[in-house]
Amino acid sequence: MATLKDVAAECGLAVSTVSRILNNRGYISDEARQKVNDAMRRLNYYPNELARSLHRNNSGMIGLIVPHIMHPFFSKLISCIEESCCRRGYRLLLFNTQSVEDKEAEFMQICSRNRAAGIIMCTGGLSVKQFKDFGIPVITIERSIEYGTASVECDNETGGHLAGELLWKKGCRKVLHFGSIDSYRMPADQRYLGFAEVCAARGMECIRIPSNAEAFQKMEYREEIESALLRYPDADGIFANSDVIGAQILQVCRKLEISVPDRMKVISFDDTLPAINTTPRLTTVTQPISEMAELAVRLLEDVTQGRIVPVKNVLPVSLTEREST
User: Fold this and answer.
1) How does pLDDT run across 102-144, given as a tens digit for each residue?
2) Which residue has the higher pLDDT, 256 or 17?
3) Cis preceding-peptide flag for 316 (omega within 30 of 0)
């Protein structure tokens, strides 16, 4: 049976260096990590997980809590976080709350009991005190900073600005906004605020169509979209808070024989698979999802190693114009 010394000899590194790599301590180059991983595979070496968890005071697992595993944004985010965890030697525990607040506390308890290195939280139902009671680092993604150790967000307000400016340039004068949920306060609310700010500055009439948690959970917005389009037949532009909503807007427009983009211009947010799998393809505000995932994992690793991290981390967005405008 291969030992740690065998792995060190196989890859030409010191035993202490191999140990640091296996326990994610200190700076580790990608080249050194790859050498160790290759040597472990050749020798069929498996670290003693119990010993490792006792040595570093955590299990090397990261808990990821999301509200909706089937939502395209979270599906892409999960994939990117898993890839980043794998590169850094962590294993991922994935939890889907389905927007049930009691599940958040339950899942955090599971992470705490299993000595997880930390949690990446994409939901926001727990109170600040409950987070502190768990005594475990929490990095939030697109959720309020008060709920964690540090947050990762995209520049939602600028995304709203970009959408408003493009609709103005395309000749829109009466626009609708779909997607904000009144019962939750989230960074995504800044999308509407940025959009409304541009509308006011440009003299565009802006009508907000609020959504609800049930529609988000079911990813079903068509009824409220159709109702709004019938209520405001003279609207000529739409900004949707997600690609899921944007895709359903295109479906309803087709049903009501509203031509996109001739009669109606549509912009969505996220830039996930629905944006490029629709006809016409959606113009969308692009979130840097892979960069957000990588940053969240890196922040969590830095916190577990005692390094100071920025509390609020905002990444830039861009506008990807396609056929819907």
Assistant:
1) 777 788 778 877 778 888 988 866 554 565 666 788 899 998 7
2) 256
3) no
How many domains does the structure of the chain reveal? Answer: 3
User: In this structure, are 244 and 185 located in the same domain?
Assistant: yes
The predicted structure's pLDDT at residue 20? 78
Burial 235-246 (b: 16+ CB within 10 A, else e): bbbbbbbbbbbb
Residue whose entry in the numeric block shows the structure tokens 């009439």: 205
Q: Output the domain CATH number for residue 19.
A: 1.10.260.40
Examine the domain organization and report whether 180 and 277 are in the same domain. yes
* CA atoms 217, 222, 226, 232: torsion sign: positive
For residue 50, what pLDDT is reported? 44
Read off the CATH number of the domain in which 99 is found: 3.40.50.2300
- CA dihedral for 105, 107, 112, 116, sign (positive or negative): negative
pLDDT at residue 89, rounded to an integer: 83
- Looking at 39, 55, 71, the residue that finishes a domain is 55
pLDDT computed for residue 54 by the predictor: 43
214: domain range? 156-286
Distances (CA, A) of 313 to 76, 127, 140, 244: 20, 21, 10, 26
- Which of the 8 DSSP states describes residue 296? H
Q: Is the residue at 20 inside a domain?
A: yes
| pLDDT beyond 50 at 205 | yes
